[in-house]
Amino acid sequence: MASQNMLKFVTVGRNMPDKRPPDLRRADFREIYGEFAREKAGEQAGRCSQCGVPYCQTHCPLHNNIPDWLRLTAEGRLQEAYEVSQETNTFPEICGRICPQDRLCEGNCVIEQSGHGTVTIGAVEKYITDTAWEEGWVKPISPAHERSESVGIIGAGPGGLAAADRLRREGLQVTVYDRYDRGGGLMTYGIPGFKLEKEVVMKRMTQLEEGGVTFRLNCDVGVDIGFDEIRAKHDAVLIATGVYKSRDLQGPGSGSKGIVRAIDYLTASNRVANFGDTVEEYDSGELNAKGKRVVVIGGGDTAMDCVRTAVRQGAESVKCLYRRDRSNMPGSQREVANAEEEGVEFVWLSAPKGFTAGGGHEGAVGGVVAEGPGEGSVAGVMVHKMRLGQPDATGRQSPEIIEGADYVEDADLVIKALGFEPEELPTLWGVEGLEVTRWGTIKAEFGTGATSLPGVYAAGDIVRGASLVVWAIRDGRDTADAILAQLDQPASVAAE
């Protein structure tokens, strides 16, 4: 029977935490949403209908037990709510901030379908875990017993860290190797602070270190240490590198100065704005939007991160070009709305065909077309106007060029946010026998992450392609369980 604190969706309206006004949030990189007060969190959690078939849980990649921790929150039993959420989610405070809830749990809430407005699941999840940190309920990992087996994990992103947490809790010796100077992967250097303040990620890094996970940072596999050396050191190896190779743009002028990759741009901004690092390319203006007319090409969440970062850096104007319309955009609609509030202009049904060069505002209009790599500074994006035609193989309408409707969009800085592809790991690492798919992702067994090499596993984006943090966490946890099962087998069985 449902608690008397529940089923209030008819009398209590949906409410989100207060959102900072656009003019204030444009001035810094702090998170834009406030925190629920205890009473408000309980009230909003109490709107849950406790339905018999919880679609929110079904559509969560981690299958979080959302109805139960909403009920516990409504009853004021916050520590229990945190413990329930932590059972299925290694990093609930991160998912509560950056998951596209409008496409996952909240987008499939039963009361949303009946017109009452979805439960604010993400905001309550964030509140529960932030409270857990404040109250000291989040403890370092303390295994019941230590084991001698060791696992090497390549990549300190969400998939690798989720696996490290799960393996360490079972007493295994875990070493995480990462090329960057801080762990967290794209959670640290890709996602801006206004969506995920870096203190949140660094707290989890500290918790893992205090729980016995060893981190070897600034360690580039294939350069600083060989893959075969890692295999020799450990009983199992997990590849969780993510995908960092940016998709590129071809066409006239594509090598002009001022056309940059989203990952380079966001990494520089995160280093400077969130950690106070000195970044030469930022100081020189190469990766800094201040005073510039910025054009971002792409329609996913990375593009939204770029446009909103450019606003905060003091760009003169920020435009986002996307070849389809708003309803066909892959990024979160919530992020699009936040960007529009902050002054970003979206230019729908537009695709780049090349770039003009000139340098400075005066050269932007009617600038020459740059012919070779590095020839001149970008002054504009030559744009094809598009229309939506017949659906493609995925069911989405394919964009078609409208002949004779081309024009030039003025720009001093162009950011390519076209998605990511896997690096050629077998070649980079000099590994023989590591099979990859035709897309370059590592070929791994569904559910276990086992690769073509004995004792080597893979998880996260390097297997499924560029995806969500929550899916990487799911894959990391599942693969950790498979590694544990393999190590628990008798030696005679494991060798077969």
Task: Write the SSE topology.
Elements (H helix, E strand, L loop, with lengths): L21 H4 L12 H8 L9 H4 L7 H9 L3 H11 L3 H7 L11 H4 L7 H15 L14 E5 L3 H12 L3 E5 L8 H4 L8 H13 L3 E3 L10 H7 L2 E4 L5 E2 L12 E3 H14 L4 H4 L9 E5 L3 H12 L4 E5 L11 H9 L3 E3 L2 E8 L10 E2 L8 E14 L5 E5 L5 E4 L2 E4 L3 E2 L3 H5 L26 E3 L2 H4 L4 H20 L2 H4 L2
Please, could you describe this protein's structure?
- The chain has helices at residues 22-25, 38-45, 55-58, 66-74, 78-88, 92-98, 110-113, 121-135, 158-169, 186-189, 198-210, 227-233, 262-275, 280-283, 301-312, 333-341, 425-429, 461-464, 469-488, 491-494; strands at residues 150-154, 173-177, 214-216, 236-239, 245-246, 259-261, 293-297, 317-321, 345-347, 350-357, 368-369, 378-391, 397-401, 407-410, 413-416, 420-421, 456-458.
- It is α/β, with parallel strands linked by helices and 496 residues long.
- It folds into 3 domains: 22-135, Orthogonal Bundle (Fumarate Reductase Iron-sulfur Protein, Chain B, domain 2); 150-243 and 422-494, 3-Layer(bba) Sandwich (FAD/NAD(P)-binding domain), CATH 3.50.50.60; 247-418, 3-Layer(bba) Sandwich (FAD/NAD(P)-binding domain).
- Strands 3-2-1-4-17 form a 5-stranded parallel β-sheet, with helices on both faces. The chain has a 5-stranded parallel β-sheet with strand order 6-15-7-8-9. Strands 10, 11, 12, 13 and 14 form a 5-stranded antiparallel β-sheet that branches.
- Strand 8 (317-321), helix 16 and strand 9 form a beta-alpha-beta unit.
